[in-house]
């Protein structure tokens, strides 16, 4: 009598894994296509049909995986952002990490997909709503989780104004003057700004 190998896969196991891989690959293609198209044309200039065609996917799959164009934009935005990883870590190093991140963004010569998306889409009413959720979920709440003491949300919002303020400055005034400054000095100044914004008390108790 043949003994069945205990390591053998249950019936349909390999096929199920293949389907999962196919779903993940399709989902990734849709996200990549949406990121590129939103960057090229802005939110208002892109349709779900365009995204599906670029991703070589069925329109029904785009709607099934993401629900709507707005939800897809929000997921692309969250996926392109690295700020959540910057915020994570030891709380005592948070101001310095935020400062270093800010300086890296200034020094970035190539325009990122995320900045192109925002430049071409920020004025759209649906995008404003998405940005509110993004700010809350990806920046404010993770910052609040790192803070102790009173008024944690107010302090997190104050730090968020520094983080998010770089975008309008870049779009309206450019960053050449900041790029010409000494990165180490900029980092020190920004570290002091973030430290002050996140501190639980303006006047430390003796």
From TrEMBL:
DNA-binding region: 47-66
UniProt cross-references to SUPFAM superfamilies, sorted A to Z: Homeodomain-like (SSF46689), Tetracyclin repressor-like, C-terminal domain (SSF48498)
Region annotated Disordered, chain positions: 1-25
A GO MF term: DNA-binding transcription factor activity
Keyword tags: DNA-binding
PANTHER family (UniProt xref): HTH-TYPE TRANSCRIPTIONAL REGULATOR RUTR (PTHR30055), TRANSCRIPTIONAL REGULATORY PROTEIN (PTHR30055:SF235)
Protein's recorded name: TetR/AcrR family transcriptional regulator
